[in-house]
């Protein structure tokens, strides 16, 4: 089975509106071995979904009160006799203690819900181990990605996926049907060899986020150090002024927009590099280097981190006037002006600069919020390819241009003021402009008709140096065809 096929749900959605209790699988008796957290939540969910539940415990009398009254709690051997589908809600270490039940379990479907404590903990997956202990049973791996809490609270939006695999198609279909009646979306992950992969899923810690998070932290550290030198260390060394109080808010708040802005440009830079590579080699069939491939795959996470930093920057900026240091400095300035008898302190250029850069900044944040919202799977799924590409590509690029305007109006003419070069270091905003401006210039160049046309042809399969069949309109408007080198 191909990877694409495996990602598809086993069953299509069936409407149960107006007839909630009547579903093909409900009414069936399901067995649960074990009486722990998972078994309890599973039993509650199964009962709520219209199934009859029989729980097998080593000590049914003690455990019965923990289960809903509709569920029957009995000894393990008694329970498995009453059903053909049994969820094994027991840890792998205790599978061997179930071997006494081998005879009564023969020919039945065992659903392995277990997880490990470490990735690739054992040589064989837990499901394969269970299958080796009970060769007369059909083992299906599933439900391990759902927590006891999710089971109990119910998959209300019907969006929670349950990954299922087994070597037996019929058994897999039965378990998928049960999952669907319970409100989950079953996903066919193929045969039993996928069990290891399914068991590793709950143990992975944000695999797609590692590189973007390190990138964001690296950029934060670089810009923070740079701003610290300019805003705290320079006044201390040159004027013996203690500006340490600036570290928690001011330095952080000048660092966050730098990270956000550069990260946003890093979302679009790999696309530019990919286009350069396609133009240079004259083909789209040449593989990109691994680092570029990885970069392209992490654009969503990089963009979301850019939005996160921008949102933090907005909150920090709103809080700036609340600080006591700000109030003291304001009063100090007012007193100085009163002493100097300065009545008019209005600087028209400064007023306009600030009005514009705050307004542009708010628009940039709004666009970034839109990009972040549309990257949510539920929203992405409701968009067609053109809508998604328009928002993520065109609107994203506009967000980069608006952020550049925000940065330029913030910096204004400071890049040309030599007092701004602390220890000969240029103002931070000039550094942040480097990558985004490169991306913007490259995008403008790619939109020139001659380059755009060539890029479009390459993306439709045209290759440099290849002979292709062409079709040309004749002077009469009719089409004639022939062979030529597409390189010409
Ligand atoms: P638990 O609370 O410790 O329950 C385990 C149950 O196993 C016990 O209540 C016990 O029931 C039964 N058992 C049978 N033979 C046993 C033996 N020899 N020694 C000890 N217990 C034995 O664990 P759990 O959290 O429900 O997890 C059960 C399985 O579900 C595990 O494989 C786990 O990886 C998987 N899982 C759990 C969650 C979750 O959120 N908890 C999520 C996904 C998957 P009796 O005493 O009645 O026999």
Automatic annotation (TrEMBL):
Pyrroline-5-carboxylate reductase catalytic N-terminal domain segment(s): 29-116
Pfam assignment, any one: Ferric_reduct
UniProt GO cellular component terms: endosome membrane; plasma membrane
Needed co-factor(s): heme b; FAD
Highest taxon, organism lineage: Eukaryota
GO MF annotations, alphabetized: cupric reductase (NADH) activity; ferric-chelate reductase (NADPH) activity; metal ion binding
Predominant place of localization: membrane
Catalytic activity: 2 Fe(2+) + NADP(+) + H(+) = 2 Fe(3+) + NADPH; 2 Cu(+) + NADP(+) + H(+) = 2 Cu(2+) + NADPH
Region (Disordered): 1-25
Annotated compartments: Endosome membrane
GO BP of this protein: copper ion import; iron ion transport
Family statement drawn from the similarity comment of this UniProt entry: Belongs to the STEAP family.
UniProt name for this protein: STEA3 Metalloreductase
Recorded name of the encoding gene: Steap3
């Amino acid at each position: 089975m191909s990877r694409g096929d495996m990602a598809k749900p086993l069953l299509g959605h069936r409407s149960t509106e107006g007839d909630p209790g009547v579903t093909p699988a409900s009414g069936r008796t399901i067995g649960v071995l074990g009486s722990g957290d998972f078994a309890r939540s599973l039993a509650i969910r199964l009962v709520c979904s219209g199934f009859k539940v029989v729980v097998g415990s080593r000590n049914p009398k003690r455990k019965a009160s923990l289960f809903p009254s509709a569920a029957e709690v009995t000894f393990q051997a008694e329970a498995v006799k009453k059903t053909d589908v049994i969820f094994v809600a027991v840890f792998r270490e205790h599978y061997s203690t179930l071997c006494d039940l081998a005879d009564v379990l023969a020919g039945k479907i065992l659903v392995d819900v277990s997880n490990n404590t470490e990735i690739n903990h054992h040589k064989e997956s837990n499901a394969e181990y269970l299958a080796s202990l009970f060769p007369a049973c059909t083992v299906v791996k599933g439900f391990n990605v759902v927590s006891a809490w999710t089971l109990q609270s119910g998959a209300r939006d019907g969006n929670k996926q349950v990954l299922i695999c087994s070597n037996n198609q019929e058994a897999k279909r039965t378990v998928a049907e049960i999952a669907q009646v319970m409100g989950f979306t079953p996903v066919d992950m193929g045969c039993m060899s996928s069990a290891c992969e399914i068991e590793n899923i709950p143990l992975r810690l944000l695999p797609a986020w590692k590189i973007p998070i390190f990138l964001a932290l690296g950029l934060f550290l670089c810009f923070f150090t740079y701003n610290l030198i300019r805003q705290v260390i320079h006044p201390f060394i040159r004027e013996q002024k203690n500006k340490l109080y600036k570290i928690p808010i001011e330095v952080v708040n000048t660092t966050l927009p730098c990270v956000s802005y550069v990260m946003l440009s890093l979302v679009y830079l790999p696309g530019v590099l990919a286009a350069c590579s396609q133009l240079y080699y004259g083909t789209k069939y040449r593989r990109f280097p691994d680092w570029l491939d990885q970069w392209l795959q992490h654009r969503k996470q990089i963009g979301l981190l850019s939005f996160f930093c921008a949102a933090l920057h907005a909150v920090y900026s709103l809080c700036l006037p609340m600080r006591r240091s700000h109030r003291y400095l304001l009063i100090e300035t007012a007193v100085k002006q009163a002493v100097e008898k300065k009545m008019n302190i209005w600087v028209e250029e400064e007023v306009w600069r600030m009005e514009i850069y705050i307004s542009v900044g708010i628009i940039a944040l709004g666009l970034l919020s839109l990009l972040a919202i549309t990257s949510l799977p539920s929203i992405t799924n409701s968009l067609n390819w053109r809508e998604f590409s328009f928002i993520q590509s065109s609107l994203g690029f506009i967000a980069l241009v608006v952020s550049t305007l925000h940065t330029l109006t913030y910096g204004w003419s400071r890049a040309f003021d030599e007092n701004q070069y602390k220890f000969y270091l240029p103002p931070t905003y000039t550094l942040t402009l480097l990558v985004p401006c490169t991306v913007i210039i490259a995008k403008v160049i790619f939109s020139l008709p001659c380059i755009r046309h060539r890029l479009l042809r390459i993306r439709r399969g045209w290759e440099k140096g290849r002979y292709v069949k062409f079709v040309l309109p004749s002077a009469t408007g009719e089409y004639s065809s022939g062979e030529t080198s597409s390189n010409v």
